[in-house]
Design brief:
The chain is an alpha+beta fold. It has one domain. Helix content is 19%, strand content 31%. The chain is built from 2 helices and 4 strands, in the order βαββαβ. The chain has helices spanning 27-30, 56-65, and strands spanning 14-21, 38-43, 49-53, 69-72. A 4-stranded mixed sheet has the order 3-2-1-4, with helices on one face. The longest helix is centred in the last third of the chain and has 10 residues, at 56-65. This is DUF1150 domain-containing protein.
Length: 74
């Protein structure tokens, strides 16, 4: 599940990857994720969500494909 939005970080190359509990997401998103318990969000330094994907590894790959430096948030 990739975001349909263009990723724009306006010069800041660090993004943050964190697990997101599906139960805390809007209904529209929950209906699209099937039986997953959590997804992984990629956020910029201001906290804006740039992407939401089903797999942690995919979140890191997505960030790197956009020349961003992903950092895990626990």
């Amino acid at each position: 599940m990739n975001t349909p939005y263009e990723i724009n970080t306006e010069g800041n190359r660090i993004v943050y990857v964190k697990a997101v509990n599906v139960a805390n997401l809007p209904h529209e998103v929950r209906t699209q994720v099937g039986d997953l318990d959590h997804l992984y969000a990629v956020h910029d330094s201001d906290g804006q969500q740039l992407a939401l994907v089903a797999d942690r590894k995919l979140a890191f790959v997505l960030a790197r494909q956009h020349d961003l430096s992903p950092v895990a948030v626990h």
